[in-house]
Amino acid sequence: MKIVVSPAKSLDYETALPTTQHTQPAFLAQAAHIQHTVLQQQSPKQLSELMHISDKLAQLNWQRNQDWELPFTTTNARPAVYAFNGDVYTGLDSYSIEASHLDRLQDTLRILSGLYGILKPLDLIQPYRLEMGTKLPVDAHANLYQFWKTQLTQHLNDELEEGELFLNLASNEYFSAIDKKALKVPVITPQFKDWKGDKLKIISFYAKKARGMMVRYIIDTNAQTLDDLKGFNYEGYGFSEEYTTKAGELVFVR
User: Fold this and answer.
1) Distance from the Cα of residue 197 to its chain's centroid
2) Is the model's pTM score more than 0.90?
3) Which of 87, 117, 140, 249 has the fewest CB atoms inside 10 Å of its own CB, making it the most exposed?
């Protein structure tokens, strides 16, 4: 099974790491190209306007861009799954994953990224901010979707085996960087819904956390099949046959 998730804007480079294992990103050369030819040329004011962020955040990310350099080592970079610190990663709770399960995590999970393209959990990354939806031209490409789509889709096809389950737990912003029609396997997209009064809704905060919990469930149980996925029951969620009405979706309700 392969799973894709989104990255997070908030980062953690302080918490003690539970492992010394690390790898290098597959698209580090492309990330360096984006950094050196585009991002490092942007002033704090330009970053603020480009990313719609405050002057303070723009200054922070301008400095990150200036400090970004190769090679990536354990002193200037951190494994991605321990660097990202948003709701998905709260649900995943990677720091408590058993050491014996790290190989499974590394083989299964992929993190999409505006700067790094696609990451394995233990790939080293330096701090950055670049959302996939940022309207940033790169070379002859009008935006990051044009820059990444063919490369990322081919990369996933190279990794995927015939008949292997492919799970989309990323946001629409990030999954749009993949050419779904060109993938050699079908895409399964779980949905997580909560009752609010008498209505069933996707509540962003809970849904993001549930995506991370679904990854954790798969790693914990070594889930391999659709029936295995339907067994997901963390924090009160349960598979609903009744509300799963679209092909390629699995709806979980609580």
Assistant:
1) 31
2) yes
3) 140
